[in-house]
Amino acid sequence: MAYIPDTPEDRAHMLAALGIDAVDALFEDLPPSVRLNRLLDVPPALSESELSRHLRQLAAQNRDLGQLTSFLGGGFYDRYVPAAVGALAQRGEFLTAYTPYQPEVSQGTLAAIFEFQSMIQTLTGTDASQASLYDGASAVGEACLMALANAPKRHRLLFGRTVLSQSRQVAETYSRARGAEITVIDGVDEIMGDDVAAVIWQYPDLLGQITALPAIIEKTHAIGAVAIVVADPVALALLTPPGEFGADIVVGEGQPLGNRLQLGGPTFGFMGVKSPWIRKMPGRIVGATVDHAGRRGFVLTLQAREQHIRREKATSNICSNHSLNALMATIYLSLLGPEGLKAVATVSAELAHYLADRLASAGLVRVPRQEPFLYEFTVRVPGSVADLNRHLLDRGILGGRDLGQEDPAWQGLWQLAVTEQRTKDDCDRLVEEVLAWQSR
Amino acid sequence: MAYIPDTPEDRAHMLAALGIDAVDALFEDLPPSVRLNRLLDVPPALSESELSRHLRQLAAQNRDLGQLTSFLGGGFYDRYVPAAVGALAQRGEFLTAYTPYQPEVSQGTLAAIFEFQSMIQTLTGTDASQASLYDGASAVGEACLMALANAPKRHRLLFGRTVLSQSRQVAETYSRARGAEITVIDGVDEIMGDDVAAVIWQYPDLLGQITALPAIIEKTHAIGAVAIVVADPVALALLTPPGEFGADIVVGEGQPLGNRLQLGGPTFGFMGVKSPWIRKMPGRIVGATVDHAGRRGFVLTLQAREQHIRREKATSNICSNHSLNALMATIYLSLLGPEGLKAVATVSAELAHYLADRLASAGLVRVPRQEPFLYEFTVRVPGSVADLNRHLLDRGILGGRDLGQEDPAWQGLWQLAVTEQRTKDDCDRLVEEVLAWQSR
Amino acid sequence: MAVPLIFERSHPGRRGVAVPTPTGIAGQLADWVPAEFRRQSDLGLPEVTEEDVVRHYTYLSHLNYGVDTGFYPLGSCTMKYNPKVNDWAAGLPGFADVHPDQPPSTIPGLLFLLAELERALAEVTGMDAVSLQPAAGAHGELTGILMIRAYLAAQGDQRTTVLVPDSAHGTNPATAAMAGYQVREIPSNRRGRVDLAALRQHMDGSVAALMLTNPNTLGLFEDEVLEIAETVHRAGGLLYYDGANANAILGRVRPGDMGFDVVHLNLHKTFATPHGGGGPGAGPVAVKKALEPFLPLPRLVGNAETGWQWDYDRPQSIGRVRSYYGNIGVLVRAYAYLRSQGAEGLKQVAETAVLHANYLLSQVGQDYHSPFPGPVKHEFVLSLTEQKRRGARALDVAKRLIDFGMYPPTVYFPLVVEEALMVEPTETESREMIDRFADALKQINREIDENPALLHEAPHDTIVSRLDEARAARHPLLGWPQLKAEEESRS
Amino acid sequence: MAVPLIFERSHPGRRGVAVPTPTGIAGQLADWVPAEFRRQSDLGLPEVTEEDVVRHYTYLSHLNYGVDTGFYPLGSCTMKYNPKVNDWAAGLPGFADVHPDQPPSTIPGLLFLLAELERALAEVTGMDAVSLQPAAGAHGELTGILMIRAYLAAQGDQRTTVLVPDSAHGTNPATAAMAGYQVREIPSNRRGRVDLAALRQHMDGSVAALMLTNPNTLGLFEDEVLEIAETVHRAGGLLYYDGANANAILGRVRPGDMGFDVVHLNLHKTFATPHGGGGPGAGPVAVKKALEPFLPLPRLVGNAETGWQWDYDRPQSIGRVRSYYGNIGVLVRAYAYLRSQGAEGLKQVAETAVLHANYLLSQVGQDYHSPFPGPVKHEFVLSLTEQKRRGARALDVAKRLIDFGMYPPTVYFPLVVEEALMVEPTETESREMIDRFADALKQINREIDENPALLHEAPHDTIVSRLDEARAARHPLLGWPQLKAEEESRS
After folding, report:
1. What angle do CA A7, A11, A13 make, to 5 degrees?
2. In a domain, C77, yes or no
3. pLDDT tens column, C225-259
4. A347 falls within a domain
């Protein structure tokens, strides 16, 4: 009965007011043949102290990133989350509110979403943003649906091979029913056809590359398609944002911005768009307005796009956003500010370049060799990447992703990400273990 | 420069307003010969992520009570602290406020202290309480000073041998300068003399005993002395409160009420007193009153006792209380309510009785054998208690206190406390390991 | 006073949290990236101290209303109390600081928890297999309908249409459309239930599925559900259960036993996880055996003894619907809630929620019109047409409730009820709170005649009064650069 | 609206958190305890749900003002910003869930931290040895004066008197009295410093110590401190440093170098730990070599290599002053703060605090009288006698500041200044905030003439206005049973 306030007297009072003897009377409309005449077969109730012990024990069975040294990336990074993020976002007034349907008592959530939209807009170099999506991959899916809806005669989506495969796979799941067809392309030359709705490119891409983007966008526009860019938000602190290269829609995974990893969720997806796309975005959008006294306030706006108004004609079926995760990102970006975010990206990048140099000396050469990169890069491993990762895990190191699992063309490629949480010592230790593994 | 907002421009602006070139000008009144012309020799500044890693590493070196199974007691217990306690007490409005000097913007703290006082008063069976003291031992010290101040001709304090020695030692430190003299007594027969200011008894006492109290209080009053009782607040859920037996002042350690152990601090001490003592209590006291419109509110009151008004004539030098810890206790007691607190004490007691029975079967007999007890008790160990505790610690069990360390008369006595966080399995495992140790 | 923004606290040169400083160990940006790719433009982020940030968001939190603040009878959203211990659990490093690409062998405790939760949700729903992946109810719907589509396709059955009742949540038709279906609406009958005759008319070989919420959005149990199921199944269609209202039936009846083929649950409703200002939630899907092969990638397989694996080798799967395996932080909370309740507790939840709704309805039924006969389940809908005639719309009543310190119920939904006010008290609110709400509604009903301005100008004590939503939509100001420019041009 | 109490939410039979249920495994209370000792009386605790508790304390928190809310220039209290990472650290199970009787071998990380903090505080103060035990500043004072007493006694020197300046904190004379000394006050001179001539008059062989705060409570540096030290020491007395104002001198000058023998620091002031509504703080004491044997029991000895021990074998020690070794949760925070600052940072703290105080004084000095010549250090005292002549007392000005969203400065302290207003902006407040405060003070100064009722009736927007403190003291209502009876008798 945890969390239920009713005493026997309360219950009796209410039953009496209803003129019934037992709650069973309120369930008599259930067809007798399907009523559950037994208790559910679920584990017995625990007191809070027992529950706490049980959960602490389950949690202790996992090796967290305080115990393992991680070089994993691929959209999800072991970045530091300042303590103030949790302290503020966990405040009950934020945590236990719902979608801000009544703006007069929801200005906290609304103002924070407005701030979030502002930050995503400027980070991505676009004209507008919305209140967040479930994650980066579903944001790619939503962006693809926008492009498909915009040009009903175009049904092909061209995905760069170096877009994270999850994003492509979600887009495939989302768009298959609409008759879309996905083609994987390797470069700008493959962008062609008047049936192409959108070209989707990642920046930096899966191998850490960045320089292909302008030409991709230019060609995409040349064939009348929509340029969708999947971006790493921390990298945008240092890189020319996709919007400035002309991207129409910029989406990405928000986890690196103040969100803990949580095995991949909940995090959030973000979306920035150029002006023509504003009224075609999925999800919640917050706008500024004024009240009768002229005081500035914020409201959910452009709701004519949404499912609760438009039903089957909505731009998406999405109802919730990941508001709390977006709030964490907003607090994170406020705490870091422009210089802090740049420093985080720069420290990550300098350690990554140091590591890449040392690995090259150890015979693990970057692929592609000369392409600029920031803090995520790919090397070729002389041998089994899976075997190397096992060797490392035994020594408390989470090695990089085995890109051979992403694409058979990438057998032997090892994707490493370095964050500001890594140290020179961490990098040195990784190299030492790689050498030890080579000489085993 | 963490947490300092000044930019170079801010600094220049302020210096200009002051008509000076550098902050050095504001320190020219420091005698030149003692100015520190070097940097302090302290460790270099860390960024927050580095700091977080460093502290996590230090914390991980300690074996906490999630890892060890504890049978330690002695005023400090491994009791469960519900999650809501921390979630609420850590709210910034509580955490970062100061002593509520301005009641209009401090009603949160003031109302919570008033609630705390109410709960301590009823728990202890007294007429009034105050806003908390540093800890249980210093509360005993303050109570002794009250008794000494009340009867300037009486200078002796009689401490039951079974009062936790820390309490006696703090009282000694506190009262020595006033010429007080402490005598340890073993029973009611030793209570005598017109120089006795107070008799201090613990309930339940160090060996877990409870039944001596009424006679102790009666005899204390018979010789015109003050009866001070040191009580375990959780035990008071089941036991007749000392105030009902006539105790004048009831003090104790508050940790078991919703405070984490933290190696012993910060926790809080509590004090409940009978009416004649209200204006003689040390520390902050909150009272109810009304504002000009008749609205109920709370204020710091009876401040004429206090150091900031009375200076050397104050009842104590105490200035702060342990308000946040008292808030945690208040939230804890609200969450548990009367039935919850009774259940916590009862579950502890039934496990303790189970354990005592099993230990008796193993040859570790209770001392004293027939005296009633609740969840803390003492057994005689056939052999070295220290050795037994070492054996247990190697197996992840924090055995009980070695009372031979408290008092030479108690060689071989082992004090065990069982809380609601222990299970039957925990008790069984302890017994098994005791048997293993015996047969080693 | 205007609602402030963090940008307005910005002061060039201020810094918040201290981050590591570049050491120059391997060059700098200009060494790594060609000029064209080096960002020149402003990041648009505020420059503030941690103190600024803490004060700003503490202040913003004070402008918000949550379940932790007070009564939140938002119909269809099940704003029950969210236990604090669940938040604590979700924050444990062993659950929160694990990378999604860590080998399963490094996280057995978490995977055990997820498997146990799957098992329990299957039992609660009466289904055979569960995927915890969907991030929200609507996401669960999409996953579910895509599975139905794939299941039918695997049988060579290309149906074109999904049926939804006219009282359905907007997500139902939107989902069906997103999954490539045409949508047909089934009208409600005079009892507020699916019109069975109309359903039988619409039900043919083109219909892939009927999406049903039960109890429906009117708070009424679809008491002809077995006939509905039979009708749909006989025509070769499948039955989808929208679990938004599952709080009403926990331990009393199970969708699987009523004939549903696919179910989603909103854990942020029924399983007490906090709504977070609009999310994250979690919308696991549960299916009958026949649909199991179509569940999204990956599936969690294995057990505590042999270890756990992510299974990607599932050729009939609809594919991925998101990154990785779900909103773990939400799932941990839901598991904790499950373990705090047990079977008795879950049943008590439903019974109490239903009792509270009926009791509240009985208290306000004299003053407000309830368009359908009861008993209701966990919520009910009032129709304020009579109040509207007297000069106050449902929105006015809702806004006036704010002055009483309560969050307003859902308004103007479901669409089938005119001037709808949709009230869900939940099982965690006390009788006194329910009485206080009823008293407030009754007082407001009197105020319509005695002092209508009180309603029209409500709310009175909030930082802003009613906002100009038309202006917001007509002239969208969606970011600080635009708002700042606009405010500067006005002043 | 009255400020509510949790008791008013109580409803018999309600339960908050679920606790384990007795199983009867070993009998029940009646089997264990004789009837006389079985409690019959009501526990007086509320019966409420977790939801009730969360809403009540969330609401109470909204009635509070903290540093997280806004500007808190409470003189002498150093209400600087309290970093959130420090709170996080203090909550780590390895620091928070350890029993004080655990063997030191099980907690090397925590003991290393404490030893490092001791070392750093010795360096910061220029002293030789530190005990972290005292729970608060006043507790540190008591510990310190008892050590001085023991030290002198060990030399057969039984002195009777402690000197304190008339501007001292009340804790100084109260401490001296508690330690068994008579207290003699030394007057301030016209410059607001200790009158050296008077000191020389009072200084004789009966004087055990002079307790000095430097900068003193007027915010002024005792620039004759070396002469003071020489005077005290020459007469065989010791010099006690009250560290309440150490924030002003960090890294600039050290008490040890100025001749102080015993020092306490308020970590909740200088080291940024939160004040918690009145505590807990921490008041470590630092001493010169000669006093080390007298430090309280136990002492932490050892090192990371050989392990740590609690040393109780210290025959000259003053004994115990508390349970165990200190307010660990506060000490962890202070250590974290220390490590976030480094030597440069600490110096910057002092310089900025002093710059801010002088700047603020320069902004308000036209309108408010500052009775002593500057520069000040980290705080300053204004004397509002002129305002009082015009009809507004310091308290009125203070209360009016609440209407501007600011916490009022300390009033009527130090006692040597008439109508004192004691302002400490701290280093963590921005220039704009300081300007805003100055503007508020200036506006209030105008309001005294233009609209004095604004001041007299202030504050205007709080849950209660000025409370009847005389009534509270005359007729004390200190608990709910008494308050309830009184309110029932009134109604």
Report:
1. 115
2. no
3. 999 999 999 999 999 999 999 999 999 999 999 99
4. yes
Report the residue from C58, C84, C85 with minimal CB separation from B92: C58
Q: Are D135 and D253 part of one and the same domain?
A: yes
Does residue B193 form part of some domain? yes
Handedness of CA A175, A178, A184, A189 (dihedral sign): negative
The tally of CA atoms less than 13 A away on the side-chain side of residue D157 is 18
**CA proximity to A71, closest of A332, A314, A351:** A351
Tell me: pLDDT of D374 over 90: no
Residues in chain A: 440
Domain membership of residue A324 as a residue range: 85-330
On whether ipTM exceeds 0.95, the answer is yes
Contact D11 C432 (CB under 8 A): yes
Strands A296-300 and C299-303, bridge-based pairing: unpaired
Say if residue D242 is in the same domain as residue D177.
yes
Closest-CA residue of D relative to A87 is D84
Say whether pLDDT at B311 is over 90: no
Provide the CATH number for the domain around residue C274.
3.40.640.10
| Closest CB from C12, C51, C85 relative to B7 | C12
Across the interface, whether the CB atoms of A47 and D84 are under 8 A apart is answered no
Per-residue pLDDT band for B1 (boundaries 50, 70, 90) equals low
Q: What percent of chain A has pLDDT over 90?
A: 92
Domain stop point among A286, A312, A330? A330
The kind and range of the H/E element at A335 are helix A323-361
Residues D335, D441, single domain; the answer is no
**Whole-number Å distance between alpha carbons of C57 and C60:** 5
CA angle B81/B85/B88 to nearest 5° reads: 165
Q: Which residues of chain C have pLDDT under 50?
A: none
| B323 and B306 in a common domain | yes
Quick check: C473 contacting B, CB < 8 Å? no
A75/A53 Cα distance (integer angstroms): 33
pLDDT at A309 over 90: no
The number of folded domains in chain B is 2
Q: Which chains touch A (3 or more CB pairs under 8 A)?
A: B, C, D
Overall average pLDDT of the D476-482 stretch = 97
User: What is the rounded CA–CA span in Å between residue C335 and residue A55?
Assistant: 10
Q: How many separate domains does chain C show?
A: 3
Q: Which residue, of B330, B348, B376, is where some domain finishes?
A: B330
Q: From the CA of B137, how many Å to the nearest CA of chain C?
A: 32
Q: Residue B307 in contact with residue B320, Cβ under 8 Å?
A: no
What pLDDT shows up at residue A305?
77
> D18-45, pLDDT tens digit by residue?
999 999 999 999 999 999 999 999 999 9
Q: Tens of pLDDT along D454-466?
A: 999 999 999 999 9
D299 — phi, psi (to 5°)? Answer: -105, 145
Question: Is A389 within the bounds of a domain?
Answer: yes
Q: Which of D18, D51, D87 is facing A87, going by the closest CB pair? A: D87
**Do both A399 and A428 map to the same domain?**
yes
pLDDT at D324 > cutoff 70: yes
Same domain, C143 and C291: yes
> What CATH number has the domain bearing residue A366?
3.90.1150.10
Whether B265 and B155 share a structural domain: yes
Tens of pLDDT, residue by residue over B199-248, are 999 999 999 999 999 999 999 999 999 999 999 999 999 999 999 999 99
C332 with C354, same domain: the answer is no
Q: What is the model's pLDDT at position A1? A: 66
H/E stretch holding A109: helix A107-124
The average confidence (pLDDT) of chain A is 96
Nearest chain D residue to C16 by CA: give it: D83
CATH (domain of D420): 3.90.1150.10
* Mean pLDDT calculated for residue range B72-82: 97
Residue B390 belongs to some domain of the structure: yes
